[in-house]
Amino acid sequence: MRMKKKGTLVVISGFSGAGKGTVCNRLKEKYGYSLSVSMTTRQPREGEQEGVEYYFRDESEFLRLIDYNGFIEFARYVDHYYGTPRQFVEDELEAGHVILLEIEVQGAVNIRNQYPDAVLIFITTPSVGELVDRLTGRGTESPEIIDKRMKRAAQEAMSIDEYAYIVCNERDRLDECVEQVHAIIESSQTMTERNRAFIKTIQEELQDRTR
Ligand code: 5GP
Fold this sequence. Notes:
This protein is α/β, with parallel strands linked by helices.
């Protein structure tokens, strides 16, 4: 009798500018985790490539895919749609892999409702001041967009309790953050929620032997 191995969905959320993208990429490189590529209706930023950061699509195509049940979740965030394509995630789960979803809070809650054993992690900066610094420092967004994202961050902060874990990504301490997230993923393998079938077998076998 062994604990059954199946894939693990790991949801990584956090304020825009908290560095969650970097954390996910590092986890992928270092531990070979799969990273889901989302679809979005927003325009690519400089340096972003089709199929790497996102699949960039117009709104009519996005809406068509919603109709085809092509997403396991989708949400609207700052005037645009973002969604997690269904096929890749289902294939990876079937193959027993760890899959990282870098998505915002509405998507995270949606995933948890569908997959109760998903691991939800919120990445934050150590302070609001540092969040503002990072959002301004990236230099890629207009003041209006930065303002929208700050307002959104204020809303998202009210939902941190939806997550099982909160991890700080401190400036110049990326590795620490990556190792903490890795440790959470490792230990999640032994959650009772993930091992229902194994637990049931033990319970039944013990009932039989003590009858
Ligand atoms: P950005 O425009 O900065 O790349 O992403 C904006 C927000 O959308 C981020 O919080 C990011 O995590 C989130 N996001 C990216 N892809 C998805 C997705 O597939 N679904 C959901 N619900 N949120 C996403």
